[in-house]
Amino acid sequence: MWLNSDARKRATANCSAALLGAVLLAGCASRPATLYSWGSYEEGIYASYVGRNDYPVEKQISQLEEDYQQARSANEHMPPGWHAHLGYLYYEAGKLDQARQELLTEKSTYPESAVFVDRLLNNLSKAS
Amino acid sequence: MRALQKSMRPAMLSAVAALALGGCQTIKPYDYTNFRAHPPRSILVLPPLNESNAVEATYGYLSTVTYPIAERGYYVFPVAVVDQFMKDNGLPSAHEMQEAPLAKMAEITGADAVLFLDLKQYDSKYQVLASVTRVEVTAKLLDSRSGILLWEGRGYAEQGSGNSGNILANLVAAAVTQAINKKTDRAHEVSRVANVNLFDPEATGLPYGPYSAKYEK
After folding, report:
1. How far are the Cα atoms of A83, A99, A119, B89 from residue A125, in angstroms, in the given order?
2. In chain B, whose CA is at the least distance from the CA of A40?
3. Residues of chain A contacting residue B183, judged by C-beta atoms under 8 Å apart
4. Secondary structure (3-state) at B140
5. How confident is the model at residue B14 (pLDDT cuts 50, 70, 90)?
6. Tell me, what DSSP letter sits at residue B143?
7. Would you call A45 and B63 a contact, using CB atoms and an 8 Å cutoff?
8. What does the alpha-carbon distance between residue B139 and residue B153 come to, in Å, rounded to a whole number?
9. How far is CA B195 from CA B8, B66, B187, B202, in A?
10. Contact between A120 and B76 using a beta-carbon 8 Å cutoff
């Protein structure tokens, strides 16, 4: 009896591991496994340099916010610098509260950013 | 010594892989002694110098370089914010930013290391008669406190006209949103392949950083 129930448990565990593996593999086939959800972060930077008039700051913000919602629903992380970048765009759009919030998120997510983000926060408090 | 031996094995394996991929070139493994002595967590990427004739090279390339470095496991400072911050503080060009004292960069950002990039080639989208688009970039990573060279490398990629069958480019392309702006130049996309050749080779590339599961302490 012991053995039987043990074996059954093991079989169930193996089965779910295989299922999980299959799901992971299926995910990999359509997209490389990345640490972060990149969305429009880099291509948005590129577009904003190529033609600022074609890609105004409000549009950049709404695209990034949309990326963020998608990443959250997929339980994926935003790349380093992402929240600080969004914070900077909010600053450019004159939305200082959101700018501050994004900068604080960058700092709490990535402590490596603290010195630079504190400098930006300091500038922000002078601006408001 | 033991750590050295341990890190040699994967390096040799990937040298073989690189040989198989690269065809004829012999790859000499990079000497990571300085890197291992000062392993960075965070990397400040300054806008690249531009030795090409394409004015759009600086930002066409800069907007591809966060992905490979962050995916190797490093904190990468937000490149566009850094660029604007430097401009607002009296450094109007990539040249002036790269000439600024390293200690000052470290003080402003708290970065462990600073990456200096130089675009040797970046074919313009305006070269309509060119049949091949080429991107060549060299990189030097300096420890921001000591100024010691931690790593350097060169990345090159080319793509013939109408050739979109590059496996590496397609892999990266699948992970990022494509072409928000329809004016996308081909060299911008080729830059991503050059970056794979610069950062990812196991024997010569940038070692994995602390956010990577493959990080070796």
Report:
1. 18, 11, 10, 17
2. B177
3. 50-51
4. strand
5. very low
6. E
7. yes
8. 5
9. 23, 10, 12, 13
10. no
The per-residue pLDDT for A46 is 93
Contact status, residue B70 vs residue A36, Cβ threshold 8 Å = yes
| Sign for the pseudo-dihedral over CA of A29, A33, A34, A35 | positive
Q: Over the stretch A3-53, which tens digit does the pLDDT of each residue have?
A: 444 444 444 444 444 444 444 444 444 556 899 999 999 999 999 998 767
Q: Tokens for A33, please give them.
A: 């496994």
* Gap from B124 CA to chain A (nearest CA, Å): 13
B168 and B195 Cβ atoms separated by less than 8 Å? no
Q: What is the pLDDT of residues A102-125, one digit of tens each?
A: 999 999 999 999 999 999 999 999
Residue A98 has pLDDT above 80, yes or no: yes
> Per DSSP, which regions of chain B are E strands?
42-45, 49-50, 75-76, 113-122, 132-143, 149-160
Q: What is the pLDDT of residue A53?
A: 74
Q: Residue B181 and residue A30: Cβ atoms within 8 Å?
A: no
DSSP B177: -
Contact B59 A45 (CB under 8 A): yes
Residues A63, A96: Cα–Cα separation, whole Å: 19
Tokens 């997510």 sit at which residue?
A: A109
Instruction: Note every long-range contact of A15-18, with CB atoms under 8 Å and residues 24 or more positions apart, other chains counting.
Output: none
Q: CA-to-CA distance for B10 and B201, rounded, in angstroms? A: 11
* B56 vs A42, A43, A50: nearest CB: A50
pTM, to two decimals: 0.80
Contact predicate B135/B120, CB 8 Å:
no
Other beta carbons within 10 Å of B28: 9
Put simply, the answer to whether A39 touches B75 (Cβ < 8 Å) is: no
Q: Are B117 and B46 in contact (CB under 8 A)?
A: yes
Task: Tell me how far apart the alpha carbons of residues A115 and A127 are, in angstroms, rounded to a whole number.
Answer: 19
